[in-house]
Design brief:
Structural class: alpha/beta
Number of helices: 6
Strand content: 15-25%
Radius of gyration: 15 Å
Number of strands: 11
Helix content: 25-40%
Order of helices and strands: EHEEEEEHHEHEEEEHH
Length: about 190
């Protein structure tokens, strides 16, 4: 069974985070949510209280096939400042059989970790100036090597379906797309 870790922080955009968790779990991926707050509870960017499965400092990035950073503010800043998140992203990016994904503002954290140098990526428009080294592309979802980025909340479904396809196969992702009534490609 494939495994994914989705990191949460105070200020995480809850829809980006939870849509990813939901779609990956529908695909049969074991998803662990991990808080960077030192507490399993987080308060999302729109004041939704959420409980996570684990603490970021207890996560070993080598245990996962995918590491995901949802956007939101100040969630992205909180994720970018967490050594455990950086370590997990660097470990996954170094293994061509693993994936690193970020959506909305969170690709800026990947850029800060040095993971987007010369890579095609997308980001929420207000964070383009924080994408040093990346080749910016105006598309909802952009894949380059084993790094996948999404533009924002509106791209959460195709972003998550693409991750499901990469981990579990195109057929699985297509079944989920049909089951949730998403009429577009991904």
């Amino acid at each position: 069974m494939k495994r994914a870790c989705v990191f949460f922080a105070d200020g995480t955009e809850e829809c980006e985070a939870l849509l990813t968790v939901d779609i990956l779990r529908r695909a049969g991926v074991e998803v662990v949510t991990a808080s960077v707050n030192g507490s399993r509870s987080i308060l999302s960017s729109h004041n939704v209280r959420l409980d996570t499965d684990a603490l970021a400092e207890d996560i070993d990035g080598a245990d996962f096939d995918l590491v995901v950073l949802p956007g939101g503010m100040p969630g992205t800043t909180n994720l970018a400042q967490c050594p455990a998140v950086k370590a997990a992203c660097l470990a996954a990016a170094a293994d061509p059989d693993k994936w690193v994904a970020a959506i909305c503002a969170a690709p800026s954290a990947l850029a800060g970790f040095g993971l987007l140098e010369g890579k095609r990526a997308t980001v929420w428009p207000g964070f383009k100036d924080q994408m040093a080294g990346a080749v910016l592309v105006d598309e909802p979802v952009v894949e380059d090597g084993n790094i996948l980025t999404g533009w924002g909340l509106g791209a959460s479904i195709p972003f998550s379906l693409r991750l499901a396809a990469r981990l579990c196969g195109q057929e699985t992702a297509e079944k989920i797309r049909a089951a949730i009534g998403y009429p577009y490609g991904f």
